[in-house]
Design goal:
25% strand; 8 helices; four-stranded mixed beta sheet; globular; 281 residues; alpha/beta; 2 domains
Length: 281
Amino acid sequence: MREISVEKITRTVRDLCIEAACDLPQDVENLLRQAKEREESQFGRYSLEKIIENVELARQDTVPMCQDTGLAVIFVEIGQDVYIAGGNLVDAINEGVRQGYTDGYLRKSVVEDPVFNRKNTGDNTPAVIHTEIVPGDKLKIMVLPKGAGSENMGALKMLKPADGLKGVKEFVLKTVAEAGGNPCPPIVVGVGIGGTMEKATLLAKKALARKAGEHHPDPKYKELELELLEKINKLGIGPQGFGGRVTALAVHIESYPTHIATLPVAVNLNCHAARHKEAIL
C-alpha cells in the first residue's frame, strides 16, 4: 500500500488549476496553428492569429487565456493500492481549487445554489469531481476548467436503437450547427455514446480530456470521428463564428455498452481554449 498525503493532493490541484487557465496544452496549440494554415477565410485567419497570440501572451505572463476560467471539473484515477493519508480526498481537491483560483487571481464563477440562491461562493468551489478506481499505486489528477459558453451548448438525446449510426451523426451535426459561434470555435467536440443517460454525458465530458486530435483506438470509431470532423468543418461556422473552413479542431468519441432498447448520445463542446492539465502522483 502506497501512502499519498492530502497536502500533496491539494498542492497538485492548486498548481494544475493555475496552469490550466494560463498555459494551453501543446496538443491544442498545434491544431490551432495547423488550422490557421488551412483556413481560407481572411477574417478566419485573422481570428486564429489573434487566438494564437492570446495563447502566447497568457503563457508568457501567467494570466488566464480567457476571462471565464470555468467551473473546475476534476477527473481522478485512484490506484487500488493507494492510501490517502491525513484527511478526505474531496476536501483536499476543493482546497486545491480554492487556493489555485485565489493565488492565481482566477475569476470565481460558482454559485451556491442553481435556482434559489445564486450567490457566488467566492473561491470557485465546490469542484465537479469524478473518481475511478484503477489498478496500481498511483493517483492521476486531471483538471478541466469548463467555461459556460461552451458548456451551455452541449446536448443529450435518447435515441432509439433503430435511429442507428445515421441518427448519431445527425444529432451531433445538429448540435454543433445550432451552437454556431456561441462556444467560441474552433471547438473540440466530445461525443459520448451508450451506457445510460448520465453515463453518456460523462463519456462526452471525458472525451474532451483526451489529447486533442488523438483518435479512438477502434477503427470504426476513428473513421466516425474523421467523418464528423469533415462534415462539421463544412458547416461554414468558422473561427469565432465569423465563417470559414475551420469550425472544429477535433472530434473525440467515447463509447460504452448499453441496453438493448436504447441509444443514448451526448455532445459536449469545448471552446478553442480547450484547457486540460494532469499530474500523476
